[in-house]
Amino acid sequence: MPRNTSINSVLIIGSGPIVIGQACEFDYSGSQAALSLKEEGIRVSIINSNPATIMTDNIVADNVYLLPLTCESIEQILEEQQIDAVLPTMGGQTALNLCIEASNRGIWDKYNVKVIGVDVAAIEKTENREEFRQLMIDIGVGIANSKIANSFLEGKEAAQLIGFPLVIRPSYTLAGTGGGFVHKKEDFDAALNRGLHASPTHEVLVEQAVLGWKEFELELLRDSNDNVIIICTIENFDPMGIHTGDSITVAPGMTLSDKCYQDMRNQAILMMRSIGTFAGGCNVQFSVNPENEEIIAIEINPRVSRSSALASKATGYPIAKIAAKLAIGYNLDELQNQITKTTSAYFEPTLDYVIVKIPRFNFDKFKGANKELGLQMKAVGEVMAIGRTFIEALQKAAQSLETGRAGLGADGRQSRDLEEIMYSLEHPSADRLFHVKDAFELGVPLESIRKVTHIDKWFLVQIQELVQLETELRRYQLNNIPRDFFLTLKQKGYSDVQISWLLGNVTEDQVYDRRKELGINRVYKMVDTCAAEFPAQTPYYYSTFEDENESVVSDRKKIVVLGSGPNRIGQGIEFDYSCVHGLSAAKECGYEAIMINCNPETVSTDFNMADKLYFEPVFWEHVREIIELEKPEGVIVQLGGQTALKMAKQLEDLGVKIIGTSFANMDLAEDRGSFSDLLKELDIPYPKYGVATNAEEAIRVANEVGYPVLVRPSYVLGGQGMSIVINDEDLEKAVVKLLRSLPGNQILIDHFLDRAEEAESDSICDGEDVHIIGMMEHIEPAGIHSGDSSAVLPPFSLSESVQAHMEEYSKKLAKALNVRGLLNIQFAIKDEKVYVIEANPRASRTVPFIAKAYDVPYINIATKVMLGAKKLSDFNIVRKLEGYAIKEPVFSFSKFPEVDKQLGPEMKSTGEAIRFIKDLNDPHFRELYSQKSMFLNAQ
């Protein structure tokens, strides 16, 4: 059936600010859906309050509404635009809940707007635990023994009927919020109360706990002819009991029998057909008894999910793009496979490789947090790796995490504490995967590990084999490792760093040189959706160690953009936004734009964003070999946050050109001590400071500069390790703690400017001219990390003199650092005197906010300046902001109710929202400003 020609204008609802459980996978899905609809000549409007996303960029939609996600905002849009249909399936639970609320208020009927991609009744059936349970019984799909409860008394009766252990699942919540396991009767009352309060309908499902069972997810698509295809089957490495967002996952399923898979398939299709007649995407979760392969349904989500982004990147099948076209009437067989360009979209992907996803946690930001994993999601991001085998992909994923690991162990960071290891295996946390390997190294039997973790034996055997390989490797020296054995190590995912550590007394470079002598080279394979049955037209690659290289190097001029790796606090979606604009600008300047990144949630890893995508760890060995293959004109590191910046020195040492600001000048700004010396030379005020390498030196410096002092390490992002201390005793503790986690790092001791205001500027410099793209005044005072502060653009209470000094110092520093591209500077203002706190010659988290507020593509401009293709004078920059824009941080403290929520110099927010106000009499602004006054007076 051709598309529904009555739909000419569609509203897509976004997911709002990034929070734990709802991250940038919806930015990816929403952006892909919007571009897919625009291909059909449909006018697309988007509502989303997140300024850091590509989804809210005018390159994606015809009309972008940066408004709070409320029914009032929806009505405002419907008054202004002639909207024919709303697509609520691309914005996670937030969008679905808003769609339901608007439906209940009669808004869609009032404006004659059709809901597409799902029907509201389907949402009700899947989110209401009792309706879902009854539906599964009606269609003959197995479910766990359970009972619904709308009151404390009903919950107690359900527990008595079912028995312990139990699961409590609140209705209509995101990422397991309010849910959890209850193992014993004494803990039940508190858990039940928590679940009832978390549910907006005061409803929970009290369910039999199938702990230790295996967990699987299926991603489905269905069209209006009721054709259904399975896009991807994902198996959880971790058994039931850990939220899927916190689980290591693998595709395709590794331990499924064919019979069990076919049964699961049939049940998933039956479930999707039973919840309504909508056309679009769906995610179904199952649990499987490892003893007899009994299958029970856990839940079904009639929308794109966190796993949809993963499945799209894993298979190359653009789920959101196709789902959007199905929502406007197309059938699967009428659409083209986006990878092969010859087959139809009614074609189930086939994988001739394995993908592994590992979640990324940030427990270091939540001091005192309960790190044990359960039904409530706690991960802040994830990485995905592709390999020919499970173990190769697993090691590559471990290298991608940005936690200092060189793979799965064999890097000097192993634990040798058996008691700690066994506790970790029984009480899973972020390190359990590594502790499984550590347990094998200490001789713990496989069966003992299986019994305590319930991880499938097949996975454990794969990890155990690594220990055997390492034992064999230690028999050799670098110059006498047999070539076949060396090749086996690389095919098992071992990095050169791991091999050098295992051998001892050799460097990573020596291992690299030796394997090159032996002709052991990394080759690149194409992700093609069809196991090479049909030729692929899309250059999307992963690496392995075989003979044939499928990545054909062109003779065009090339630019490599280094991505930012997994999302974490301090380095989020704003850097992906920057990378996407960097790719676009490089292509506009005539370069072949090459992307390297390992984050499956992002737009930058969409196969059609770059001319060539390498889905690889942003890890030195992988980056180096891609560069040696492609031989680019240079590498852009300014856009990928600290992840990319950390590689600048290695790139420089390799003779690779850094596009934009040089490594030496970036390093000068990063080195807190050297930077303060530069400020002194430029006669720019700065807080008194000193540098220390141990606690004794730190105490001496602190007494010289005067308490209170800000203690911070060099070369960090997101305020990692920063603290404010007021005496020698606290300082000694802070320094010892820092040097334990960051050995060898310099410690900077700054006099802390008590009761100072904070502000920041972002600039672009082309080597001659400096353009201040925005100056922002913070609501919170100095001492609160800028990422956790509300920022107002332009400043609302800073005097003309202060703003003039901010501009003067910005221009001075841009020229002194010989900046080519972006520069972010943070200021403290006290008694009308402006002090510079720090400068970062790279993309910052505030540039997307400024770009959206002023409606100017600043990253695109900055990239063209970096490339030397344009001067600032070539651009006619016109700002469109009327009134003020406010950037407001959003936190996920609900996931960690036990932690200290007080804000300080170390960043804790997971996302941000933007709000526009016409003047300073706005009630929301007055409330924020009263907080500022309170902060300044109370400090």
TrEMBL record:
Highest taxon of the lineage: Bacteria
Membrane spanning stretches: none
ATP-grasp domain span: 133-328, 676-867
GO molecular function, one term: carbamoyl-phosphate synthase (glutamine-hydrolyzing) activity
EC supergroup of this enzyme: ligase
Recorded catalytic activity of this chain's protein: hydrogencarbonate + NH4(+) + 2 ATP = carbamoyl phosphate + 2 ADP + phosphate + 2 H(+)
Family statement drawn from the similarity comment of this UniProt entry: Belongs to the CarB family.
Keywords assigned: ATP-binding, Ligase, Nucleotide-binding, Repeat
EC number of this enzyme: 6.3.4.16
Protein name: carbamoyl-phosphate synthase (ammonia)
Matches recorded under InterPro entries: ATP-grasp, ATP_grasp_subdomain_1, CarbamoylP_synth_lsu_oligo_sf, CPAse_ATP-bd, CPSase_dom, CPSase_lsu, CPSase_lsu_oligo, CPSase_preATP-grasp
